[in-house]
Amino acid sequence: MDPRTPVRRTTMTSTPVRVALVGAGRIGAAHAETLARRVPDAHLVAVVDPRPGAATAVATPLGARAETEVDAVLGAADVDAVVVAASSVAHRDLVVAAADAGKHVFCEKPAGMSLVEIDEARRAATAAGVVFQVGFNRRFAREFAQARDLVESGTLGEVRQLRSLTRDPGRGPSDPDVVPPWTIFTQTLIHDFDTLNFLNPGAHAVDVVATADSLLFPGHATLLDHATVVVRYSNGALGTAEASFAAVYGYDVRGEVLGSEGMVTMGEGASSSLRVHGQGGRTASTAHSDTELLRDAYAAELAELCAAVREGRPPAVGADEAFAAFAVAQACIDSMTTGGRAAVATSVLQEA
Amino acid sequence: MDPRTPVRRTTMTSTPVRVALVGAGRIGAAHAETLARRVPDAHLVAVVDPRPGAATAVATPLGARAETEVDAVLGAADVDAVVVAASSVAHRDLVVAAADAGKHVFCEKPAGMSLVEIDEARRAATAAGVVFQVGFNRRFAREFAQARDLVESGTLGEVRQLRSLTRDPGRGPSDPDVVPPWTIFTQTLIHDFDTLNFLNPGAHAVDVVATADSLLFPGHATLLDHATVVVRYSNGALGTAEASFAAVYGYDVRGEVLGSEGMVTMGEGASSSLRVHGQGGRTASTAHSDTELLRDAYAAELAELCAAVREGRPPAVGADEAFAAFAVAQACIDSMTTGGRAAVATSVLQEA
Amino acid sequence: MDPRTPVRRTTMTSTPVRVALVGAGRIGAAHAETLARRVPDAHLVAVVDPRPGAATAVATPLGARAETEVDAVLGAADVDAVVVAASSVAHRDLVVAAADAGKHVFCEKPAGMSLVEIDEARRAATAAGVVFQVGFNRRFAREFAQARDLVESGTLGEVRQLRSLTRDPGRGPSDPDVVPPWTIFTQTLIHDFDTLNFLNPGAHAVDVVATADSLLFPGHATLLDHATVVVRYSNGALGTAEASFAAVYGYDVRGEVLGSEGMVTMGEGASSSLRVHGQGGRTASTAHSDTELLRDAYAAELAELCAAVREGRPPAVGADEAFAAFAVAQACIDSMTTGGRAAVATSVLQEA
Amino acid sequence: MDPRTPVRRTTMTSTPVRVALVGAGRIGAAHAETLARRVPDAHLVAVVDPRPGAATAVATPLGARAETEVDAVLGAADVDAVVVAASSVAHRDLVVAAADAGKHVFCEKPAGMSLVEIDEARRAATAAGVVFQVGFNRRFAREFAQARDLVESGTLGEVRQLRSLTRDPGRGPSDPDVVPPWTIFTQTLIHDFDTLNFLNPGAHAVDVVATADSLLFPGHATLLDHATVVVRYSNGALGTAEASFAAVYGYDVRGEVLGSEGMVTMGEGASSSLRVHGQGGRTASTAHSDTELLRDAYAAELAELCAAVREGRPPAVGADEAFAAFAVAQACIDSMTTGGRAAVATSVLQEA
């Protein structure tokens, strides 16, 4: 969203922003609890999930109402904004429907299943004049935000080499067949692609070369569970994005920016400053889930939603960022298909 | 408070615990904001401060009412609990008045200006059957709580040597004459005395020897701005508590427990996982205030207040802990007066 | 070198291994000092450099003799081994000449300017039955050796994702034209290629894709000063090697191995355990040169040379490792030429 | 030793300083190996130990001769300096004998069993004009030396609060009766007393209060295995020295200086930059012995001996430092005896 695009301003009142959550899965439940308990300016009004009981299980303890139909909240007068945490395949339709209903929208990543879908979602939100925020939570993690500030302020000089890494905790999927193709690019590394974009402001990704394999289920037809992607930027910077579906030591998110005047690293996985010294050495605990490691970031991104709604302005991270990150993911798919380098689209026209 | 002492149970309802804050100074304002925005089960109803405008400045942005008289909240039907953040000299009277009015109480440390005062506050709360919690925030800091768990679980074995340290940020008081005598013991190190007690459960402080001086205003009649205290415990453990009023590098809170089976350290002052690498080396930011370093602990201690009220049980840290920590502070004053070792009182009778 | 290949055994005596150093440049001077002062089993006999005065400046303070001709040491009866630290273009010829003269050889990386050259050097050493060690110093850095042990012992499980990084201190070359083409691959990243090989024992590099550019002198015809290389291994593992010629914060060498059972990281650049806490935060010093960061590793690799000579056995890192690392560098050159993925040669026949 | 005191200058030659080691126990054997292998300017000539076989076991592998009588090396023309690592009770006599024989002396701490003994040793060395160095190895540990530099340069401002800590690895002595009384002060904490003195240059210790107990053998008549000592300095600074005989997690040496302009910490026990991330968190290895943790410091202190001998100058740490540290230990004994604060002697006359 162009920062100059006007956003329909919600009448400023002293009441919190009233939010409905769509999708009561793992991350949806976490968002619901965050909205209800940790975002002062949000009021969780309703939780929607078509599965019998799923919405109720999340909504009731939080004092919200449960719905099984999205229309029940899109048509509700007491809902200002919708947080979309449903299956990714439904994201585009839900964003469009919410925008058409005049509701502000926060959508989990990816904002659609293709650049065309994301563009459609973007257009609907722009036409409706609603806030459209995308769930790139790392931008709200304190150290990543600080790193961006150091880049923008010029403290680090010219950006030259970057790294962003995601490793999911545990031993990976038990059934590889349930993982949709290209998941590692469109669902996991999309966070890292956005992080690289975020840490290299003013530049855009030019091309990528992706290397990926199934190391958990060797020879599996579609699963890719480890990937390393090199992204070239318009300012010459070289970015690396790495992902693994199986880190037994916990949820690992790190970043790094080498600039002409210095370097920053973010993320080290220690979940507190406690150090236990025993016969095996000195041990720090590591975080074991995204909701643990990024707990404050999850609250901050939803606070940003409320602030944007309240102030009638585009959110800090919106459709353009969603498009740019997905374009890198799409180029990875192209790179995997050809085995070589693939260009990153900058507009939807290029995707065909 | 004996854990078996019954506490008057607030009728369980779905509404939050309604809290009035007394004392709109720096820490009071922080508590007010925490209650209003970061403790889901609390509802900030009122802020009391006799200074014209002080209560209003804090209360209004948070949607609470401002009062200049304590009686206005002690007599209010919509107040379940009172958080006392007034001047320490008023703590005892406020706790007693709140208890007598049937209000649950959270009191900032110290809970009184002497062991007699703390005992009076304790008796009033017990007689009224209200929750009486004391503001020892470090018990709610994640790493300190983890350390205690490691001690209690036996993982660290017998506790043998401990350290707790507090250094206030900046260059110290601009006017040494406004610092009441013994402040370093009764206001600052009291946190460390409680921390040592907390980390050595089942034992009690036996005696202390305190060494302190004014290094900021050499020769000042009453100011003590640096202090090192050695505390002997009933289980033989040796504790050290250190404080300084002037740490230019920030607010520094650390702890350490050496046990027969291992050692833990807590606190390192880095305020995020960001590391900036420049020509001067690799730099981590440090926290510059208590409300920054202990932000989550402040929320957790007030959540504990609400939970104790809700569940009709004594809080995790109450009058007995307040008494025990103040007894160490009192012994430090005795030690400074005599120059030697001083016994730590275990009951108010010993204080005379 | 096949570990079973017999090596001519130097008669075991109580005298140190007598070493001549060829090439009195920066790293040669460092090797000379290490040999003379920090490797107990080495005796520095002579320093050779054709430039008038260069050998003398290094040799005299260390009590060694200075020579301007290599033949002076190859024909000397009091020289057991030669350490080659001359220009890379001379490495092959010097190794062959030394081997032909019956001298054991330690050669700085790369061991030749092509796979053919390295193969020739290897054959000469094998034919002569002399020790032929290559200067891959990171294998001797404590943490990298520990990481390899953890891999070999199975503690980390299957190797899945690796990283090795080199950043040279400072602001890069003042004159880009004096940097030979492909230096970043053949001189700098060759350390990282060997490190990746070292950390993934039993597997070999299959193909690479290299991304590199001149960010210091944009548009320069041949200089590549930043590079990111992705290496695929025969066991499926994905390696990333990164290099920069310009790290203002110091000399930065790091490594990382993700295995199915855990992850290790090596290198953090703090040159001591000192932490300075000031108004800008908490700062650790960083190392500013290879000889500072890897000081102990330099001594350990030359101690290994002496041990191999003494014990009549192949060294821990020899011609095969030199060949394997150079094959990755060569594939990077191929990748840069074609823009795509390039196969890694496993024998010299494949190079044509 | 007054820095202006002339020291007899050994004729400058190109041969190393020839050293005899007295006392082939654990630390003596370590010194012997360091002298023979890691101090380029030292040549280990002989090892003396009255126990049959002890000297031979150490000397032979290092190419030195074994002796059972001290006189054999004191009278030897090929010995320039003597390193005394015998039992502490013999230190004074050995230093005096060595000095009288015109040999330079390095003596392990403490340099005597009383201030009188240390003074006698000092006088003998001064009279003979020989170098007399004392084994305070932490002054040669990189981070402690850096900390001192930061104090001396004024970077840290005025010194206000200090800490030095020693914890011996393992579970403590198996037989408490073999530990001489006051060992924790005269043998262990003497390192910390010297460290505090070192880190607070220009000031001297004024008085101490010691708290110590046997926590390993509760009620033992003489063993003190844990101690915490507070030292007041002439510039007002408050120092804390802590020791334990039983750290299961390894050998732990740390230091800390709070100054008016900043703070430094030294020592964290990680023995390399390797971090192992597993299901239990992120683990760093810890050092398990003094010779591991302080390996470089041991070499540096013996290099300093050789340099002082070579340059005909007093060593960096000599009899005055030995006296000052022992004076603190002696005051601790006094403090333990009286239970109160005890003055620190600044001259031998005060000891009576």
Automatic annotation (TrEMBL), chains A, B, C, D:
- Name a Pfam family for this protein: GFO_IDH_MocA_C
Could you state a single Gene Ontology molecular function term?
nucleotide binding
Q: Which UniProt keywords apply?
A: Oxidoreductase
* Record InterPro entries: Gfo/Idh/MocA-like_OxRdtase_C, Gfo/Idh/MocA-like_OxRdtase_N, NAD(P)-bd_dom_sf
Domain Gfo/Idh/MocA-like oxidoreductase C-terminal: residue ranges: 148-341
Q: Which Gene3D superfamilies match?
A: Dihydrodipicolinate Reductase, domain 2, NAD(P)-binding Rossmann-like Domain
Superkingdom field: Bacteria
Q: Which residues form the Gfo/Idh/MocA-like oxidoreductase N-terminal domain?
A: 17-136
What the record says about family reads:
Belongs to the Gfo/Idh/MocA family.
What name does the UniProt record give this protein?
Answer: Dehydrogenase
Q: What organism does the UniProt record list as the source?
A: Aeromicrobium erythreum
Q: What is the lineage of its organism?
A: Bacteria, Bacillati, Actinomycetota, Actinomycetes, Propionibacteriales
